[in-house]
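Feature request disguised as a bug report, sorry. It would help if multi-protein outputs had a clear separator. Right now it looks like this:
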Amino acid sequence: MRDPFDPTDAELRAWAQSGDFAPMEDWDLIIAEPLRAPTLIDLAADGPPESREFFLRCLYLLVGDAVRSGFNSAPKEDVEAVLVGAEPAARESVSIALWLARSRRLLEHPEEFQYDAWCGGGLARPQAR
C-alpha cells in the first residue's frame, strides 16, 4: 500500500482480499469518511466474507462519529448523501439495509447515540444483526 493514510479504492479492495491485518492501529478511523463510502459499502455488502465486518464497522463509525461530533467529522449533508447512495446496496444486503435504517434513525434521534455501539463496533458484530 503506497500510503495507508490515503489508500486508493484499488488498495482498499486489494487489502480486503489479502487477509492481512490492518496496516496500522485505528485504520478504520482513517478510512471511515464520506468520500470512501461507496467502496466501504461495496466491500461491506459483497467483499470477501472475512473483511465484511471490518468495512461494516467503518460505516457505523462514519455515521456515529459524525453524530457524536455534532457533524464536525463529516457534514450532515455528506452523511445524508452517503445514506442515499447506499440504497441500491441495501436492497441486496441485509447488513447494509440494517445499517441504513439504524443510521437514518440516529440522524433523527441523535440522543440515542451510544459510543460502543456506533464507534466501538458493537452494531457491526454478527450478534447485533
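(second protein starts here, but nothing in the output says so)
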Amino acid sequence: MDPLTPPPVRRIALDREPRVVPPRPLPAAPAGPATPAWPAGPGDTTRGDAGQGVHLNGNGSSPTHSIEVTERMRIESVSLAYADNWVVREVSLPVRQGEVLALIGASGSGKTTLLRSLNRLTEVTAGAGRSGRITLDGREIHELDVTELRRRVSMVFQQPNPFPMSIFENVAYALREHGRRRARRSRLQAEVLDALRRAGLYEEVADDLDRSA
C-alpha cells in the first residue's frame, strides 16, 4: 500500500443507535500556566479562547457547558535519536489537564520513544540524544529532579516489568518512594494487600508475597 494512502475505513453495523454519554466536568485543576488560544480544527470541541474549553452538543451546533482547560505538558520541536539513527523528528504537542491522547502509528515509528522521553527514561539508553524542549507546568523537565519528575509523570508498560525483589516489595516500592521516610513492612501491609485486591491478584499471590516477582 502506498504509505501516503490512508487505510480503509471499517464500518461496523449496529442493531441500535449507540448511546452517547455526556462528558463529565474536569476536577479543579492546580495552578499552572493556562493553555493559550489554539485555532479550532475540524471536530475540535475542547479548544476555546483564553484557556476555556467548549463541549458541543450532539449535533455540534451549540455549546452545552464550558470547562477550564489547563496545559500541563508541552513538547516543542522534539527530535530523538539513538546514536546516528533519528527515531522522532520535529514533534510538537500540547498535553492538557484531564484529556486522553492516543499516539497511533506503525511499529518502529517512534511512539514509545517519544513517550519514554516525557519522564526521561529515554536517556538511560546509551547513545540516546534529544533536541527541542519538553516542559511540565512550564518548566523544562531537565531542570527537575529526575525522581520527582517520575513521581509526577509515570508510565504503564505494555508488558509488566517487575523489579528483582519479592512480590510484596514490588507493590510497596511506590509507597516507599512517595513517603518521606522508609516505612516498615508492618505499616505498609494493609495498603499492599488492598492494592493487590483491587488489581485482582490477591487470591493468586496471597501465600507467596515473599516469592520473587
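Even a blank line would do. Unrelated, but nice: The longest strand covers residues 71-82.
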